[in-house]
Design brief:
The protein is α/β, with parallel strands linked by helices. The protein contains 13 helices and 13 strands. Strands 5-6-7-8-9-10-11 form a 7-stranded parallel β-sheet. Strands 3-2-1-13 form a 4-stranded antiparallel β-sheet.
Length: 369
């Protein structure tokens, strides 16, 4: 394809309820979307960088700036372009994986729409639907948490993930396990809120037969994660620490984790995400697909990724109404605890023009005419 231009579009989508983690509380999702305009048609990408640099060093305004000044000009300079070329072309620009992932996603969507192939088929999906887990934020109280979890189980979610932080860990997990029983697939996510000095507290979670504890320590400390993994029985899963296939290989070699959470935006794109999947599968390591409060565009791509054969644990691929009353695409809905993997060309979904326009706060077309 020949890339003719890229549109950067900011949309603001209110959450149905505040979502609190150890990083802070979100009430509105400010999303940077990318539309690739090519001689073969258009494609859409979604940048998962949040509004503020708390989850990682990336943030939406910074992603837009690096795209505008450094990344997009490199892609526009290419004679012909396909998705496999995006990462090598952008490699001279250090970091900014979420921005790069959004551009790769847009190019890949355009490429696959033109060829009539779905994201799922291109990535190597083995299923046409995937089990849906749900992430539950830090609640105001334990009773409020129990009511929230009960509501999600009534909706049919097959796995519950509880956000935890120091002071909100053992008691809420114990209450959920006691209320809903040992058969509930339950895991926790610390978002790097603890240190190795908290190993004693984290070891108390062993009593609740959790699927995993996600990213308990700092993202840049594989050594201490390996030490923690020797001190607790609950499997350690890494999220923020896994930024590439190389980082995943290092973590596995050091014994820093037994499970890997794959987020395409965090690792630089869906092609690198597939490489991590292949690495982990070759080593017998379970993977699952994490979520970043994506719109329907990012959710469609995540479902395609989560349908690969190595994704043996339910991911954070919740239904649209978990976060949004209105999405930019037709909503994804639960069916017996599962979500359907789109099978149309490219992402298999397109933005709803009227809704997208209502939610849009700014647009910019590159190159500037």
């Amino acid at each position: 394809m020949k890339l003719e231009g890229l549109e950067l579009r900011r949309v603001s989508i209110p959450l149905v309820a505040p979502f609190r983690t150890s990083f802070g509380t979100e009430t509105v999702r400010d999303i940077l979307l990318v539309r690739a305009v090519t001689d073969a048609g258009e494609g859409w990408g979604e940048c998962v960088a949040p509004a503020e640099p708390h989850y990682s060093s990336e943030y939406a305004d910074g992603a837009a700036d690096v795209m505008r000044r450094f990344l997009v000009p490199r892609l526009l300079a290419a004679d012909r372009l396909d998705a496999q070329q995006v990462a090598p072309l952008l490699a001279p620009v250090k970091g900014h994986r979420m921005a790069k992932a959004a551009l790769e996603m847009a190019v890949l969507d355009a490429q696959l729409r033109a060829s009539g192939e779905s994201f799922a088929a291109y990535l190597g999906a083995a299923r046409d639907r995937v089990p849906a887990g749900v992430s539950v934020g830090i609640a105001e109280s334990v009773p409020a948490l129990l009511d929230t979890v009960a509501g999600y189980l009534d909706q049919g979610y097959v796995r519950i993930k509880l956000k935890i932080e120091p002071g909100w860990d053992v008691a809420p997990v114990a209450a959920v396990r006691q209320r809903f029983g040992d058969d509930l697939a339950l895991q926790v996510d610390a978002n790097a809120a603890y240190t190795l000095a908290d190993a004693g507290t984290l070891a108390k979670l062993d009593a609740f037969d959790l699927l995993l504890i996600e990213q308990p320590l700092a993202e840049d400390d594989l050594r201490e994660h390996a030490e923690l993994a020797r001190l607790i029985r609950t499997p350690v899963c890494l999220d923020e620490s896994i930024t590439s296939a190389k980082a995943a290989a290092d973590a596995l070699m050091l014994g820093a984790c037994r499970i890997v959470n794959i987020k395409a935006g965090r690792v630089g794109g869906y092609l690198e995400a597939r490489r991590i999947h292949d690495l982990c599968r070759a080593h017998g390591v379970a993977v699952w697909c994490g979520g970043m409060l994506e719109s329907g565009l990012g959710r469609a791509a995540n479902l395609a990724l989560a349908a690969l054969p190595g994704f043996t644990l339910p991911g954070d691929t919740s239904a649209s109404d978990r976060y949004y009353a209105r999405d930019v695409t037709e909503p994804f809905t639960l069916d017996d605890g599962h979500l359907r993997v789109p099978d149309g060309p490219g992402l298999g979904v397109t933005p709803l023009a009227g809704v997208l326009d209502e939610l849009t706060t700014a647009t910019e077309l590159l190159p500037v005419a």
